[in-house]
Write the structure tokens for this entry.
Amino acid sequence: MMIGITGTPGCGKTTVADLLRDMGYPVLDLKTTVGPFVLEHDDASGSDIVDVDAWADAFPYTEGFVEGGFAHYLPCDKIVILRCRPDVLRERLASRGYSKEKIRENLEAEALDVILIETADAFASEQIYEIDTTSTERESVVRRIISFAKGETPASFGSLDWSEYIADVI
Ligand SMILES: Nc1ncnc2c1ncn2[C@@H]1O[C@H](COP(=O)(O)OP(=O)(O)OP(=O)(O)O)[C@@H](O)[C@H]1O
Ligand SMILES: [Mg+2]
């Protein structure tokens, strides 16, 4: 089974990926696979612009977890979306030294549910599991992901509402 872990930058994907690896689960860091599909580097945001469609078309089905903000473009069997309340996400991104513009872009995406909407477009509801990492311990996030992957926890998403933060980030 291929299980995607997606989410806005800073929501905790790599954190849980590292813990899953420590437990012996296979986890592919998708950032390591996009190299040939980088179209240009955006100096303003400091991010690479990737031809996501070409990357996804060329991506071989991979057993285990695939982690990265593009995971929901892949034909995963199940997909986990990590979320973080925008005021807390702001602190996480600021502590990385991100520019104001890059922080704003990411907070806006999180507050507007961009990844959730893209995921819900591409997957059936039974495949999607959303986890709020704002004040959930990392180990608990990992336990929930494993339980969902094994089919012990049912799909669930759509219960979070960051709309009261939209005005702060736009
Ligand atoms: N469950 C959690 N509780 C508190 N802090 C967390 C949690 N998960 C991650 N963090 C913290 O949030 C920050 C961002 O986490 P991480 O690097 O895993 O995000 P990411 O989703 O992989 O981001 P990117 O898409 O940029 O790679 C880190 O400082 C990490 O320690
Ligand atoms: Mg990461």
